[in-house]
Amino acid sequence: MYEYIKGSVTFVGPEYVVIENSGIGFQVLTPNPFAFSKYEQQMITVYVYQHVREDVLALYGFVSIEEKRLFEKLISVSGIGPKGALAVLASGEPQQVVSAIEQEDEKFLTKFPGVGKKTARQMILDLKGKLADVVPEFFPNLFQPDGIEQKPASSAELEEALLALEALGYSAREIKKISLKLKAEQLTTDQYIRKGLQLLLNG
Description:
Layout (H helix, E strand, L loop, with lengths): L3 E9 L3 E6 L2 E6 L13 E11 L2 E7 L2 H11 L6 H9 L3 H9 L3 H4 L7 H11 L27 H13 L4 H12 L5 H14 L1
Parallel strand pairs: 3-5
Antiparallel strand pairs: 1-2, 1-4, 2-3, 4-5
GO molecular function: DNA helicase activity; hydrolase activity
Keywords: Cytoplasm, DNA damage, DNA recombination, DNA repair, DNA-binding, Hydrolase
Family: Belongs to the RuvA family.
């Protein structure tokens, strides 16, 4: 089992990034691939989880060990696979997720792709009271933008963000509903994704 990969970011796409180490490019699925754009051609440590199934061998990567632990907690819940866990983590607001679980807020949890009432209830049953020791005081700051400089928006950046939201499992109807609001912003691709997820969850 891999713990982490240390290498350079050579590719960033809507669904995954490529981390090159010793001449080998590892395809790594992440909650928000465009959060890695600022690290392109730089050395970075990516904490990975190797997912093995009869027909699948995939690496899921995270910028922190805490993010990886939270991912592992989420996929331990019946009804939540790796893709569903990525969609939850991509929201960038883990404290909201934890709060919803602790307060048994099924309505909030069902806003994530693939999470119905039954799965939301299972999340609460399995994880309530068990997340504070995974990422303790770190929760309020996890996955927050760290002063990424804004730059003029381009149609390509917005398009990349919309493709990333689609890859997380949101429907074309849901994405279309928020796209007009996103077009009014001047953000990077990473920031478009974060903003889009906020709109989807709060809508």
